[in-house]
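2024-03-11 09:14:02 DEBUG pipeline.ingest accepted 1 chain
2024-03-11 09:14:02 DEBUG pipeline.ingest length=721
2024-03-11 09:14:03 DEBUG pipeline.predict start
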Amino acid sequence: MSNFFKNRFKSKLERKEKFKEKFKPLDDEVKKKRTFQRKKLSMDEVNELFDEEQSEKLIASLNEEQKEAALSPNTHNLVIASAGTGKTSTIVARVVNLLKNNTHPNEIMLITFTSKAAEEMKERIQKYIPATIAKEILIGTFHATAIILLKQNNIEFNLQTEKTLIAIFASIYHKTIEHGLDTPYKEKTLFELYSVFQAKRKGKDFRTWFMETYPKRENQFQNLEAYQKVFDAYAQAIADQKIVGFNELLEYASIHANKFKEKFKEIIIDEYQDTSYLQTHYIQSLDFKQLFCVGDYDQSIYAFNGADIEIIGSFKDIYPDASVINLAKNYRSAKPILDLAQKSIEINPRLYPKKLEITKTTEDLPVEFLSFESSPDQYLEVAKMISESKTHFDEIAVLYRNNASANGIEMALRTFNIDVVRDDKGSFLEIDEVRYMVNLLKLTNTKDKLPLIEILNSFSLNKFSSMIVNELTSLSRDSIKDALLYPKGNYKFSAVSAADFNLKHPLCKKLQNPKIGNLFYHIYRMLASHKRLNLDTFLEDFFSSELLEISMKKFAEDKSSKKGEFDREIYEKLMERYRKWKTSLLKTITAFDNLEVFLKAMGQNKSKDEEESGVRLLSVHASKGLEFEEVYLIDMTDKKFPNRKLMDNGGGGIEEERRLFYVAVTRAKEKLIITWSRLDGKGNPVSPSQFIEEISQKEEIFSNEETKPKKGAKGDKKKKK
C-alpha cells in the first residue's frame, strides 16, 4: 500500500474515533433513557410541588356529575361519558384528586386509545400540576404502557414491524398451505384474519370463532384446519426468536406481568367502550387496587379492530361493587342536532340508563336533509354551500362512512378553490394513476417540461428523460405538444401507426427505441385528436384509449409482488378504479370554464411540509373525538351507510353502524346537513339510509330535485375569518 493510501486510511480512522468521542455523551444519554430508569420523586417532594389552589379551581369548575366521578371513593368506577359531556376534564380532575390524596404519581397509570390522545392528556394534566410530577405518571396507549413496563423490568423482547411479521407469516404460509385447497385466503388476508382472531377470540379455538363470526363464509370452512397449522407454526417461529407484534405484545406483557415491580393504586382507562379481549386481559394481569373506566357504549365503533361492546356492558357483572356515573350535560351540540342523535341511538339496546341534557342556548338551526340525482351533483352542491358559508373553513368538516367518498368531494371542493385536509392516504391527486392522467392533460396546455418527465418516470424511463426532453425542446420551443405534433414546424406531419411514427418522427429516429416510440405514438394520437382541446371529450377518449390500457399494464407490473411481471388481478383493479373515476370526473369537470381553470384546481394540493388548513375530509371513524361548527354528512344511502357489506363480514352489525351514525351526528356543534344521491354510479335507483328513515317522518325529508350545481368561482376563494 502506498504512503498516500496509508495516510488517507489512517486519517479516516482518526476522524471516525473523533466523531465517536464527540457524540459519546449523547450516545450514553440515549442508552440511559432507553433503560427507562428515572429518579423517583418522594411523596414529600410531590406534596411540596403540588399546587393545592390549582386543584381546587379545577374541581370547582366541574358540574355535579363530573365532580361525583372525579371524587368517587369507590374501588371500581365506570363513567358513562356521552358525546360532548367533558370526559377529559373529568379524567384530569380524577388524576389531580388522586395526587391531592397522597397517591404517588408512579402509582397512577392512564391509558388512552391513541398516542395523540396520550399527548393531549399530558398537556391538559400539566396545566394543573407541575411537569415534574406529571412525568412520573405512566400515560400512554395499551401497547406503549406494555413496552415501558417490559423495559423497566428488563424483560427481553423483540418488537417487529408488521411488514417483517407478514414476511415471516408468508414464508410459513407457502410451506404449509397445500395447493389443493379450494380458494384459500392469500397470505396477507390470512395474516389480518389471524390478528383479528387474536384480539377477539375470548378463549375460543380458531375454528369455533371463525364459524360463529363469519357464518356466511361456508366456502372457507374446509380450509380452517390448514389455516390453524399456519397459525401454530407462525406462533412457534416468533416465540422461538422472542419476536412480538402488536397483538403478541399485550399477550407477552400479560404473561410476564407477575415479574413487574410496579404496583398501581389506580388504573384509568379512556375510551373504555373500544377495548378488546386482549387489552382487558392485559389490564387484569397487572397489580392494581382501583379501576376508573370512562367510555360511552353508544360510541363503540371498532368491532372490526377487536373492540367488544360486551366488555363495557358487563362491567357491573365483573365488579359488582362498581359505581356507574352518568355524565349527561352536553356542552357541544345545538338542540336539533342532539335531538336527532338521541332519536337514532335510542333504537339500540340501552346498556345503562342515560339521557343527554342540552346546555347550549344559541339560536338553533334545523338539521337539513338534501337529496340529489347523482353523487357528482351532490358533491358539487355541498361544495357550493361550503363556498357560501360564513363559517371559517377550518371549522367545517365533510364526513363519510367509506373513504371512497373522499375523492369525489375533494374534486368538487377544488372546483371552488377550497383548500382541503384529508386524514386518510392523502389527496386524490397524489394517487400515481391520477397524477399520470393530470400530467397528460398538462401536456396539452403548458410549456412546462415537468409533466413529461413525470410521465417518463411512470414508465421507468428516467434514464432517458434528459435526452428526450432536450430532443423535443429542439423540435419545438413552444411546447412538448407542438414538438410531437409538428416537429420542426412541420404542420403536415402525420403517422397512421406505431411503426409509421417510429419511422418518421425525429425523436424516434434519434432514440432508436421502438418501445419508447410506441408510447409516444399513443400520446401523439391523443394530442392529434384534440388539437382544439375540449376537456370532457379529451377525458372521455382517454378512458377508452389504448394508451390507458398500455399505461395500466405498466402500473400493474410495477405494483406486482414480483417486480416486472404483469399481474392480471392488479390490472383489472386499476381499470375498475378508472371506470369508477370516469363518471365522477366527467360530471365534475362541467363546473370548470376551461382546462386552465381545471388544471389550476388540480394543482392546489400542498406539500406535506406546509401547514395544513382547510375543510376537513374525514371518515366517521377518523372524526371520533373531534368537533366542528359545521358538518356535512354525505352519501347517506342504504348500502353505503349502513355499510351492508362490512356488516356481513364481522363489522359489528346494524347496531354498530347506528353507533357510527350517532358519532357522525354528534361531531356537529351548530349546523348539520345530511345528503345523499338518488342514483348510484351506474344510474340505478338507491334508497336513502335506513337511519334517515328511522329518525324522520316522510314529509320532513325534502328532495331538492330542482337544485342544479353551479360553476366554481373563477378566482381564488378567500378563507373566511
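2024-03-11 09:14:41 DEBUG pipeline.report The first strand starts at residue 76 and ends at 81.
2024-03-11 09:14:41 DEBUG pipeline.predict end
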